[in-house]
Amino acid sequence: MRTGEVLLAIVLSALGTLFFLASKLSFLILLAQKPQVPQDQWYAAVGIILVVPEVITLLRIVWSTSFLVRGHISQWPSIKAILLGLFSSLLEMAAVTFFTLEVAPKLPSYIVLPLVNVVLFLQIMLGQWKRNKQKSFLASHDLVPDTSWIKRTLHSIATTFGVCIFVLTACLLVILEITEIPEAVSLVASMTALSVVWCKPIKSFAFNKECPSETARNNTSLVQTIIRIAGIMGFTILIIPMGSNITLEETPGYVLRGLVSLKETESLYTGIIMHCITAFIAYALTRVSAFYTTSRSGIMIPVLLSTVLSTVMFVYNCLDNVINTFHGEACSIQDGGFIVLGFVALIWILPVLILRKKYFMPSDVLFKPEQENFITYNYCSVYFDQHVFLNYNPKTSIEHRMSSQFKRSRVFLCTTMYREADYEMEQLLKSLAKVSKSTKLKLARVYLESHIFLDNGTDGCTLKEFALQLMALVESTLDVGRSEGRIFHTPYGIQISSILPGGMPLFLHLKDPNFVKAKKRWSQVMYFEYILNHRIKVTDALERRSSFDIFQISDKDKLHLITSDSRETELILRLQRNTTVLKVPDDDLEQQSINSKTGSQMSSDQGIDDTCDDISTISSENKDVQRDNDAAPNKEAKQTTHFPKPGFTENISQSEFNIGKLNPAYEPEVNEIMPTPWLSEFMNGSRASSVVPTIREIAPDGSEYLHDGGMFSADGSLYLDMSIEEPEFDDRTYILATDADMHFSDVSVLDLVDTCNEDMRLGAACGRTYPMGKKINPIVWFQKFEYAKDFWMIKSAQNIIGSVMCCPGCFSLYRVKALAGVMNLYSEPTMEAGDVFTKDTGEDRWMCTLMMLRGWKLRYSTFGVNSTYCPDTIEEFIKQRRRWILSDFANSLMVFRNMPQLIRNNGCFSLIYVLYLLQLFFIVFLSPGSTVVMLTVGLEMLIDAPFIILTPIVVVMFIAYGILCVRLSSQSQIQLTKLCMVVLGLSMSCVVVGAAIYVIRDLVIDVMEDNLQPQEHFILVALTGSLFYAAILHPRECYTLVHGLFYVFFFPAMHMLLPIYALCNIVDQTWGTRDNQKAKIPKLLCFPKFRRKKKKKKGMKTSPSTETLDLETEMTPEQLKGMSDEEQTFWNDLVFKLIGKDVNLGLEKDDLASGLNNLRIKALVAVLISNVIWVAVIGYFYLSAVDDKSLNGYAVMSGALYGFSFCIQVVGMTVYRAKDCIHKLGKAIFKMDKPVWITKQDDSHN
């Protein structure tokens, strides 16, 4: 056992013992106080501690479950399960409530908790005599029937003895006059009822057998939790009249008075808070311990120690009254009390001795979710030990295990480029170099490929300036030599490939705008289709060739396979080499044709048999033969060419035809077999070598294929052609989409891969992106804080309550299986004006929405760290946000148009999540009006400017700004926006400073007057404090809070100005950033092999500045080997059907411009009118409903706007951060030695 595992066990044991002990002591003290406090308050207090666990369970289920998903409605429990749940839940609550309210207070408090261990005897008895293991409700290794009947018999005798001791104890309590006979009978009845309803067979039947999926279990839990809450309330009302003079009709009011006056008894109030908090933490620790497979140190030891310590401490208190002086019934030490304690101790320890190793046996799989370790989600805070044991049931499922050392993953890193600066490209290439050399990824068995798609990279055979810049950086940054790259023409432009140091293949795809569509989305379509329908086939073939171990292939072989010939291309090249010896002068062909017609036959020594015995000899001597033929063109030519059949060892003279048939003037006889048309073209060089005939063109009937140690099987049949294979979309193949300026490490890549590998429900996962600027200025600092705030609170919360709405294309891992289901929709053209902002400028958000519509979940990982360059000038920032705001708004509208379908198809869309999204949408849509009111209310508070006068003035200015943006030129709009940003930024900064002064002053006054009570302006404190709380949860990023000062300055610009600016510029379809970027053209470029070609302008001499780099126009056979026929066919089809410049077109430019102009008018009018109405509504509320029109009204309005989403984000962020750190700590401690749990997709889509 490692040191980390030992430390973890010690920490869990210590924490568990501490909180278990605190929970038990607070409960025992509460029981002992019954005769000493007002009865109505005591009953209310006990009712609270009984109902709080059930309320927490109910909130958890409602939080995370969607009850309207298609197919999930039918997964509600059956009538049989509902009736069983109703009966067991009511019986359980009756027993717990009656025992706690009436029986336990009349017993010596120190025997209550160990006495409840009697409920384990029934479970032990059932486990001992359950002979058929497969038909048992029990877990596969929990309480498994012993093979020795003697041992089973002895255990059964011990169990029976324990039950007898319990009955004897009840009788002894009556004999010693500690309790009355009714209480003793009630004790036996209560423990018997709990033994039945808590035993595992009944629970497992209701939650496992009758609920095959997680959704069904959630629905069952919901029904039973509601029944238990109602049962606690109902039985409390029924039981109270039994022990008091209160009638049944008076009981509800009696309990309500107790609740209202609970604060008057400090001991009760403090005890409730302490018990609820410590019990919940103890419950969380049991789940963490099961998650880590450390149930013995994290659950068993705390359970045993806390019970012993609480009993000893309570007895000690009863003897010396150290803590409190309790009544005689609670501290009945004399008159045989120690005899009873001895019997109870025997009842408590006996089940533990019988179970031994089976007592909280740990699971054998790491990171199992709660529903796989425990039967139900709920917990009982008062009788915690017995309930958690009987609820603990770790199941083992082989199909959910994962051992990382036997599984491989495939990651295709795909990047789109446009006009990035050299330092941006260099940052990406350095990241690729590090990833290629990573030992961590190799140990984790992650196969990597990198693909870079550059828009407008080439014009025919001429590389453009940014392509030259990229090539120079590849050569200098990646250490790729001159001879290591392969280059070839493609239907979309030029493709260059090489192997990086470390073994990762790199493909550079330089797009030619004359052939294919520009823009980022179409580059993404290219690499999605390329990976899905070609590269996966190649790597599958690579795995098959290497006996399904892709990592055993050497770099040389990998490069050969990646850029090797297909079987079709290999056939053509072999034919070309072998027939060069037979090329004859054209004037001899006619004579050979005549000889063939007259039946003339040449002697056998003139055939190819004299030259060599097999084709391999010809291949090895190809260069010499070619050189001899070139040197002596008039040499006597051979007249017959022999084409071998699939039997490679056969003499090739068995099949022959006259080479004179290749003469175009040759006239065939009737029914004479002629060579295919391409052969003569290929022989005389009239057919372009880059246009390769397929095998079907060579031999449509499949009868004349070459055999080359891999072309045919042993019996002469052709191996499966890769071109007709269906790609295999396994669960562990991914595309890592990145931007062209990203910096990331192998740890980040591995974190995203592990995240997706461990949860098959995920369609994509994104990492934590850090913005950085080439220049350091306030606009960069603002973006640093904005990114941090959004990742801290929004994405973290979305992880817990549902699904991340967007995995941005800058650094996200997409599962190919998820991509395959949405590519048809994703590659659709723009058919409506509004589609531009969904499909072309918000392509990553659209892709994620399509995935969610298919039922996939998206996730955010804090540890997938990456960084990117952000705009470092105001002008570039404004243009970028114009694009982002429009795309975000358009995709949000699309989400809400499809919300019913999302709710039906995706289990992530729970009720809470849908409400959260709705509020966020309205916050964004109405943010201009809300910001106006915030600003004017704050100014009234600071300078006494009348709200009713100032607000209309700001609204008019707001509308005027929108009108000016429609009429002014682009540059004038930028200047106007800059001016408004400064004015509004200074105003908002003053408002925030003034509000802070008011809050601090009021808090100081309240503290000095000892009158600190909750007030409305505490909402402002909570909203601000949440940011500090988020920073505490992310200690490495606390420095980002300093940048929050600049966030305050830019807040009104982000929520008032830029939304209107974006709407006014809907018609502007430029990218906005990097449009004026200049490339650094290298003076010398060695990779790959280029030929310098000087171009002269008319009337000018050649100078270095007019020199360009061109590809060699003549493709050699060696270059031809780089492009397989399958790949050539793939790109031809893709260009022809989907990405070609003139295919798959959407709206015409004129129609698009007209549609965008109409859309601008409608959207602008709708937003302005809606926000003006919103200002009027909240202004009226502020003026009429709030007496103190300064700070309190401001706080109430902020709480109404942001309160719900704020609470959701804080809770979600806390839960996610805790779960993420626990998971990361587990990986660091256990080093993935144990099998790891995989969440299957079927678990959420059953």
UniProtKB/TrEMBL annotation:
Keyword Transmembrane helix: yes
Region (Disordered): 586-654
Membrane topology classification: Multi-pass membrane protein
A family per Pfam: Chitin_synth_2
Biased composition (Basic and acidic residues): 621-639
EC numbers for this chain: 2.4.1.16
GO terms assigned for molecular function: chitin synthase activity
Protein known as: chitin synthase
Organism: Patella caerulea (Rayed Mediterranean limpet)
